[in-house]
Amino acid sequence: MWKAPYELYAHSAVAANASFTAKQIASLAAGHSPEGLREEELAAQRFTHQLVSEHAIDGVIYAAAQAVFGDEGLVEMLVLIGCYLSVCALLNAFAVPVPKARPTIYEEATQ
Fold first, then answer.
1. Pick the CATH number of 5-110 from 1.20.120, 1.25.40, 1.10.357, 1.20.1290
2. Domain boundary assignment for the chain
3. Which residues contact 29 (CB under 8 A, 6 or more apart)?
4. Dihedral, CA atoms, 76, 78, 83, 88, nearest 10 degrees?
5. Quick check: 109 pLDDT over 70?
């Protein structure tokens, strides 16, 4: 949601190492739910995207995430979401650049 270049760079590399395709990575970076996600990945993506973009979570998305992660897992996910929102704010405020060594998988997929 913040489109922090360094965060997109770092997460695309991690996603690629976790066997996500370039198309899936670009879709996730654009805020979409790509095809081929496992149930828990889809639940986490939808929960996070809706919370960050709409500042609330509807009952269906909440129930799906709760069924996969339980209450404790949702709390852990919410703490992590908050941490990344802060990280992205800092990265954007200080204009932290992407290393010049190579383009990210996200950049390659969207060009």
1. 1.20.1290
2. 5-110
3. 8, 11, 12, 106, 110
4. 140
5. no
Name the amino acid, one letter, at 34. Answer: P
**C-alpha angle with apex 47: 73 to 61, nearest 5 degrees?**
100
Tokens 């997929």: give the residue. 109
pLDDT, tens only, 59-108: 999 999 999 999 999 999 999 999 999 999 999 999 999 888 766 565 66
